[in-house]
Specification:
With 80 residues, this protein is mainly alpha-helical. 38% of the residues lie in helices and 0% in strands.
């Protein structure tokens, strides 16, 4: 996954919009379903680490431009 991009300010909006558009098309779900690109996080500890990382980004002045969430519904009863 992409953790950080360093972009010249003149290209910021173009690159940001391209990244946002790409992530909006990404399907997360059961990895056995061919429609999905990637499976969910492995367990609740991984979910907590993800949530903590997002909190830290914001606390340090960063901005989350593509926000995910905890999967719910059939097959995701565990919260992962």
């Amino acid at each position: 996954s992409t953790r950080r991009l360093i972009i010249h300010e003149s290209m910021y909006d173009t690159v940001k919009n391209a990244v946002v558009d790409a992530y909006k098309q990404l399907r997360i779900g059961n990895p056995l379903d061919e429609k999905n690109h990637v499976g969910p996080l492995i367990d609740k500890d991984a979910v907590k680490m993800y949530q903590n990382a997002l909190t830290q980004v914001v606390e340090e002045g960063g901005t989350i431009i593509v926000e995910g969430g905890v999967l719910s519904g059939e097959g995701y009863e565990s919260g992962c």
